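Notebook B, p. 112. Complex prediction, attempt 2.
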Amino acid sequence: MSKKLLLLIIITIPVLNSVFAASPSKGEQLAWTCFSCHGVDGVSQGPATPVIAGISENYIIGAMLSYKYADDLDKASDILDKHEELEDVRVQQRFSAMMNRIAKAYSLEEIRELAYFFSQKEFIMPDQVYDKAAAKKGKKLHKKYCEKCHEDWGTTTDDDVGLLAGQWKQYLTFTLNDFANGDREMIKKMKKKMKKMLKKHGDEALDNLTHFYASKSD
Amino acid sequence: MNQKKLSRRQFIQACGISAVVGVSAWSNVFATNKAKVVIIGGGAAGTIAAKYLQQLNPALDISLVEKNNNYHAAFMSNQLLSATWAPEKFNFSYENLKSTDIKFLNEEVTGLDSSAKTVKTASGKNIPFDKLIVAVGAEADLSGLDGLTPELIKAHAWTDASDVSALFDKVKTLKSGGDVLLSIPKGEINGSMAVYGRVSQIARYLSVNNKKAKIQVLDPKAKNKTHKLFAQAWQEMYPGMIDIQNNIITTKIENSNSIVGNGNKLSADLMNIIPPQKASNLAKLLGLSDDSGWCPVYAESFESRKIKDVHVIGDAIKGFSEFRKNAQMANSQAKIVAIIVDSLLRESKLPSILPPLIDSEYSIIGNQYAVSSTKLFRLENKTWKLQTDEISALDAAEKQRQREYVYAESWFNNITNEMFS
């Protein structure tokens, strides 16, 4: 090996090492701010703040914009119309206890960085206490009313649906109730299914579903 | 490879390569691989600064110096006054931290040599640093209130969670129909909204166990939106039990049952005098605090205005605009200072972009009932500018209060997990 080549290798190896040793990106640094409530890497320790690791990018962008523009959702739609690459992002009326205060402070660019970061993390399902009989009923309900969109027992985010299996039960209870009372908007097909389910099985159906998802869709 | 054998030409070529790859990466190789960062204080700020600095540059030599072997969280510890959270929930061990590459030194810091850049410890060690991060918190200001003694500071249980249980014993033994007086100090304290959380938890206990008891709150502040929110909540949860008087400044503790406020003598069966606060004595000893009692820092770097290469974060700092002192703020500042110190060591300059600071406080009022206040700050033109400032709405729906109640516990679980997992 020539001296020159050796020199090149010796100099570039440590330099490249330090470049590629994946120092946290600015997007990741921004995401750190979320960890004290949503858990390290978005894996919440519960009992209520949802796990946001592994949620789809479009879902997170949609949720954040829905909170940010809670008072004027048309504005959020106008912004989305200007970004072709965000055509699958959906904004909706969402009941919010905390996030409406926080989302306001982030730009669209930052929201996209956060969404990318959390979407790349692994959704780690917590072990939760659940009622086996209720979970069994919930499984049947899921299959009949939810599985068509929340495929594989609510374990995938395909088509940017929310992750259900293994989510914190307390959070699912809040969210399902918001949907059922009209405090959170549903898309047409979900609205139809929800109505049908509640008519046939009553409010208990929501509770059974939360037990099923808390079982990690076992 | 023997560096002496490099010809001038080879050296120039090497420089060319490094220029292509990037000067910052190049300087990293020499400047930071063995750079030493010492962090004093293993609380909400110090643990987080250590962990995130290590993520930013695993090659750093990071030492966390903490005098205690265990941590007692003071935040949310008012829950001990209603016996709704178990005391064990507030106790944490440094065992997990010790198993990382962060050096955990169970030592008491006794001094700082700013020219030699070393920290002295009680056991006689001199720990060298390139950058020092001081996260030593706040404590009661013994000289801030006439009649205050170290024993009274302990009895009134504000800064140290391990004192709260003893105060709870006094609440439990309050005579039937007795009165409690809680006085809030003038000036900044750690956990600003937590004083009202404390009143709420005492009321929560008394409303079940001593229904005719009364609580009087003396507050130096003029009536504001926080007072209105709590007054409404108390009216809903504990009607007629709590009376809050604004614009009252406590100037003297006469004895265990009486104080002087606005020149008048006030008595109660049980007193809880929250003492005025300042940066902890250690901050003063290290030469970091000023006449205000707090440590002045530059906004853009959290570097001390008094000693170079020393950064101060958490409750001990002299805050900007409307900063409050709380665990969330300490956590947020720690992440930002980690980014700053890493950038200074790597590139000898401040980072171009910083995340926002989040200042948030939850207060549990009763079962399934909590409120909170959240502020966000952004660094703009070398100051932290308040970007949003929101508090739970008056007349909010029951489910809003209920969610904040469970989110308060979730926040506690996540922030402590982040510190100690």
